[in-house]
Amino acid sequence: MIKSFRDLEVYRNTYDSMLIVMRDIVLKLPDRERYDLRDQISRACKAIPRLIAEGYAKRHQRAGFQKYIDDAMGECNEMVVSLCQCKDIYPTYLDLSTLEGLIIAYDVSGRQLYKLGNAWTNFKSRKP
Is residue 26 part of a domain? Predict the structure, then answer.
């Protein structure tokens, strides 16, 4: 039973991934990436669980909920691209298996968000 946004698997997965990104990726990027890749990754990974939480609060509004889910999905896609860039540009700075695991996690989370948006829309449009 889902009583809170914290009960959503996609929220838990993206929150856990954010912790790994902040501890194991962002801090290890070179200083020259401070205002580019480091900032972008930091903002995107933190935004995803926040967007899920905000969207859940607006779940009674079809368009409101969907907007936040779509935005979170976009941030997941951005994380996939950014982590691939980290892997390809800085393979000696970062653990490649950690990067691969995070790329998979954000790809899966994006698909979970897509399914959540569709499921919620179908659930809300059912006639009693």
Answer: yes
